[in-house]
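Re: [help] complex structure
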Amino acid sequence: MRTYPVARIDCQALTRNLQRVRALAPDSCVMAVIKANAYGHGASQVAAVLSESDAFAVARIDEAMELREAGIRHPLVVLEGAQCQQDIQIAANQAVSLVFHHYEQIRFLQHTHVETPLLTGWVMLETGMHRLGLPQDKARQALSQLHDCPKIDRVGIMSHFANADQPQHQLNKVQWQLTQRCALQGRYPISMANSAAILALPDSHAQWVRPGLMLYGISPFPDRTAMSIGLEPVMELVSRVMALQRLQTGDIVGYGGTWSAQHDSLIAIVDIGYGDGYSRQLSNQAKVVIRETLVPVVGRVSMDMIAVDVTDLPEIQIGDEVTLWGGPHLPVETVAQWAQTIAYELVCQVNSRVRREYING
Ligand SMILES: *Cc1c(COP(=O)(O)O)cnc(C)c1O
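Output below.
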């Protein structure tokens, strides 16, 4: 039985996008970022498909544990590091590397007994984004402390660009120079580049790159399509027409009656809503694809349903497939513009109510 809605995940596209990372950064190891359920694509399945990655990165220790429970044995890195002492023990037992972005986390390490050492301790350096990270002097201190600590095998240095999607932005250079200075002429491996930096700031590739978005075939740049930078979209979000409504001039559609028919109209009700992660911001804004034709979403997005004006598609039938984004006609980047957000958010929001189907794998 095929049930809707479904997020179709193209495994071959995922693999090709990883190859694109390798081609762009041939001398770097790849830490594939699969936090937030692999940006909505399904973390353990994506990890299995991207088994050629050198490591996987997640945000939180719970995400790492879920991957271990799903049988993923790759090196894992927790980007937010330990929240408590117990996380240090869990990480050491499960071969999970940790980021240290705060001195409190180094104290957790000092006060915790571990049976086997942590694989890698990544010191997060604050270089201008003011999100996570230790300032220069503290970071240097942390690096040498971790370096001398028998509870850790290897030490690396990490930082994160605030504006990599604007390659010309002056902060990029400042952040990169501060990171390099801290790495003491290659004494410590560096990881700095996210997708946008992999694509546009090749000097910053260093020893480890950290692609997220580009693996999913999405462009990090507002003015460049995925195709133009050699990426293949991975997710197609699909549902079906569940009802048809014939409207007369003046009839309204949906909560609040924010849309009304200007002439006799045919409306298709489609089985997806904000309760699945299809943003309510798309009310009266988005288009969807039915029978290879773009048709507009009318009225408000409900929890479980949307309405679409299909007056120009008289041959439409209940059961017809509807593409909300992805496929050949509707990049998720375009839908993100309609929702006044970024594609990252749209794919992350696709929740567990939407079945995932893995194709070409
Ligand atoms: C999410 C994240 C990444 C991946 O960024 P993309 O823009 O998706 O490539 C890399 N590094 C850190 C620290 C992150 O939080």
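Residues 11-24 form the longest helix (14 residues).
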